[in-house]
Amino acid sequence: MSPQQPVAVTLIPGDGIGPEITEATLQVLEALDAPFVWDRQIAGAASVAACGEPLPRACLDSIRKTRLALKGPLETPVGGGYRSVNVQLREEFKLYANLRPARTLIPGGRFDNIDLVLVRENNEGLYMGYEHFIPIDGDPHAVGMSTGINTRQGCRRILRFAFDYAIRNGRKKVTVVHKANIMKALTGIFLETARQLHVDEYKDRIVFEEVIVDACAMKLVMNPWQFDVLVTTNLFGDILSDEIAGLVGGLGMAPGANIGEQAAIFEAVHGSAPDIAGKGIANPIALMLAAAMMLDHVGRGDLGQRLRTAIDQTLNIDGVRTGDLGGKAGTREFADALTRRIRAAG
Ligand code: NAI
């Protein structure tokens, strides 16, 4: 893609803190002179309030056209209510790869020099929503059941994505995380496919390692530096990526990309944070780092890197930080300081 060409992107500000961190992100993208042209859409609770639907057709049509979206967090009702819009978007656009990098941004914390990438399968496993209750003796929820599905094709696709990503980005090792000792079919197929694919196609190009998910969770807090790129199934990936985000200062610092053959959607890993929504104190870095990943994705890695460098400098040289990082800055103050950094460097 030529650097000058404008890139149409669907913009979904989202719920809770979504609009606040989105405005902050748009401000710094403008300072960078990023080539994005935004098509604003709504989804989630904001959309239910506006038009009664959590995922309106206009939003879907926009992503079909742009094949690219920057998305704020969307609220999902717990227990009952509508199905997660995030999950629906992943299914609709077959966004099978969830890429979640985590890097230490503020040195001197509990874990220094972290640089990990988690690749999570996004379309299969226990998140497919094949669930139901069995009523017994007047209790409509006497039994809860869920069926997970992993396919050979789905496993191969995500594993190939992880191996290729690791090689392309100069990584040393891919760790396959599973629970094949207990869930011998559901995650056994994932491990079996990983071993085979590595032997057949990647043996000479990248180091392969396997670890059981519970041990992995422990090792991540004991010695996270032993890992490099991790790849795993849907539920384990969701949990481990939050744990990994915790190693680098929490959810406010963790970006994510949902990548498929038909589209890519970039977002923060965190949710809508209803406890701090509207207070102007949310940390916008995760969404900004997601925007940096989107710049890389459209061939503007130069701007993505400028954004990451400016975030590092704002945090560590200017000392401007939001409350979750022990600072006093609000969302807007952080965005203003970052904008000054970007303009000074530009
Ligand atoms: P959450 O990630 O919204 O919040 C967890 C804790 O982290 C809260 O104390 C919150 O204040 C804090 N936090 C999160 N982001 C922050 C930020 N940028 N700056 C400072 N503090 C931050 O998770 P929770 O409370 O479990 O979920 C709230 C809602 O978000 C739910 O409706 C859930 O379904 C939805 N959600 C949406 C996601 C998405 O759209 N990708 C991902 C995760 C949850």
Topology:
Blueprint lengths: L6 E6 L5 H15 L3 E5 L3 H8 L5 H10 L1 E4 L13 H8 L4 E7 L11 E7 L3 E12 L2 E11 L2 H17 L4 E6 L9 H15 L4 E6 H10 L6 E4 L1 H14 L7 E5 L4 E5 L16 H13 L3 H16 L14 H15 L1
Parallel strand pairs: 1-2, 1-3, 3-12, 5-10, 8-9, 8-10
Antiparallel strand pairs: 4-5, 4-11, 6-7, 11-12
Helix pairs in contact: 1-9, 1-11, 5-6, 7-8, 9-10, 10-11
The chain binds 1,4-dihydronicotinamide adenine dinucleotide (NAI).
Largest sheet: 10 strands, mixed
Order of helices and strands: EHEHHEHEEEEHEHEHEHEEHHH
H/I helix tally: 11
- Quick one: overall form? globular
Uncertain stretches of 5 or more adjacent residues: none
Helix content: 40-55%
Distance between the termini: 22 Å
Tally of DSSP β-strands: 12
Task: Please explain how this structure is put together.
41% of the residues lie in helices and 23% in strands. It has 346 residues and is of the alpha/beta class. It has 2 domains: 1-104 and 252-346, Isopropylmalate Dehydrogenase, CATH 3.40.718.10; 115-247, Isopropylmalate Dehydrogenase (3-Layer(aba) Sandwich). A 10-stranded mixed β-sheet has the order 2-1-3-12-11-4-5-10-8-9, with helices on both faces. The chain has a two-stranded antiparallel sheet with strand order 6-7. Helix 1 (18-32) packs across helix 9 (285-297) and helix 10 packs across helix 11. The longest helix is centred in the middle third of the chain and has 17 residues, at 152-168. It is globular and about 55 Å long. The two termini are 22 Å apart. Bound molecules: 1,4-dihydronicotinamide adenine dinucleotide.
